[in-house]
User: Fold this.
Amino acid sequence: MYNPHSFPARIFGRASPLFRSLEERLGIAVFVFALLFAGAHAAMAHEFKAGDLEIGHPWSRAVPVGATVAGGYLTVTNHGASPDRLLSVASDISAKAELHEMAVKDGVMTMRPIEGGLEIPAGGSVELKPGSYHLMFMGLKELPKQGEKFPATLTFEKAGTVKVEFAVEAMDAAGGMKMDHGQEMDHDHAE
Assistant:
């Protein structure tokens, strides 16, 4: 709305081409900023749906040259009234992919495949994260590179299959596990 007492209006007058130009430029700048903010928000929103399930922010870490395995992490939220179960994962990035659980018992860290899948409780969520439940991509055919994404397919007992993309973060991405040099680890891969 035109305010005849505003500084630009007093200096340039309402009909001044310079005043209109300033108004247009300001309007365009605000519009562009709003679009950038909306686009950035959409880019950060990294969620997928399968029936009553919402899969939030699938991610992995970049791995060094020569690595043969990579981890996969995400959160599964069940908005339904009955539990579901994550049964398997598959990806072209690796020869094999499995659900794993990592735990520490009597000072020994163990990592084992989860038999029978991972239950996602009704009205609840399960976070697959470093040091806990996670996905293992084994026999890498290509290395996950920071800033890139790779596709995978998750299979659930009730919700069926859903294609997701894992965002590849830095090798030292938040949530990383630091192991003491003296700590033992038993890593059991069923081949």
About this structure: The chain has two domains: 7-44, 47-187. The first strand starts at residue 47 and ends at 50. Confidence is low (pLDDT under 50) at residues 28-44, 175-191. The chain has two helices and twelve strands.
